[in-house]
Write a structure and sequence with these properties.
- The chain is mainly α.
- It has helices at 13-22, 35-43, 59-89, 102-115, 121-128, 132-145, 163-166.
- Helix 4 packs across helix 6.
- The radius of gyration is 31 Å and the shape is elongated.
């Protein structure tokens, strides 16, 4: 038994509906659609199409949305550049700074996690000057001992006494 090597073609629903509405099977001769196919379209009813609402908007609405999004993107880029430049001008950096409060570290971890849903994690960390190793160490400490800088962390070194255990 020989299998046919002819590929099944698919056509745009608007093309099918145009032929069905006009009842003219020769409406698009330049497309070389088989006569039997266009005849079936011409004798049939209009096809119903299920689509998303984004695809039903007209071109002018889409262009307006695009211009609005581009303007917002330029504004956010300018804001990010301003903040980065201000950090550099005032010498603000967390490269060699300690952040002893666990709550502050947790806020920073949360902010980075939120940012990393939109852009890569490495880029988020680079923008604020936080090393990848420090970030992951803080995430590990957040689970183990709540990020607070204390003289000891009994869950990391079980044989070491805690400040409470000394008293």
């Amino acid at each position: 038994m020989e299998i046919s090597s002819l590929a099944r073609r698919s056509y745009d629903h608007r093309l099918k509906n145009s032929v069905a509405c006009s009842r003219n099977s020769n409406l698009f001769p330049e497309l070389a659609i088989p006569k039997r196919t266009t005849s079936r379209w011409a004798s049939g009813v209009r096809l119903s199409v299920v689509t998303a609402s984004e695809f039903t908007e007209n071109q002018s609405d889409l262009v307006a949305k695009l211009k609005d999004l581009e303007a917002r993107c330029r504004g956010l880029t300018a804001t990010l550049t301003l903040v980065r430049d201000a950090f550099n001008i005032f010498g603000l950096s967390i490269d060699w700074s300690r952040l002893p409060e666990g709550e502050a570290k947790q806020k920073l971890i949360t902010a980075v996690d939120n940012c990393s849903t939109e852009i890569p994690l490495g880029l988020c960390l680079k923008e604020i000057g936080l090393s990848t190793s420090r970030y992951y160490r803080w995430r590990k400490l957040a689970v183990v001992c709540q990020l607070s800088d204390e003289p000891s962390c009994p869950k990391l070194k079980p044989s070491k006494l805690t400040p409470k255990g000394v008293v």
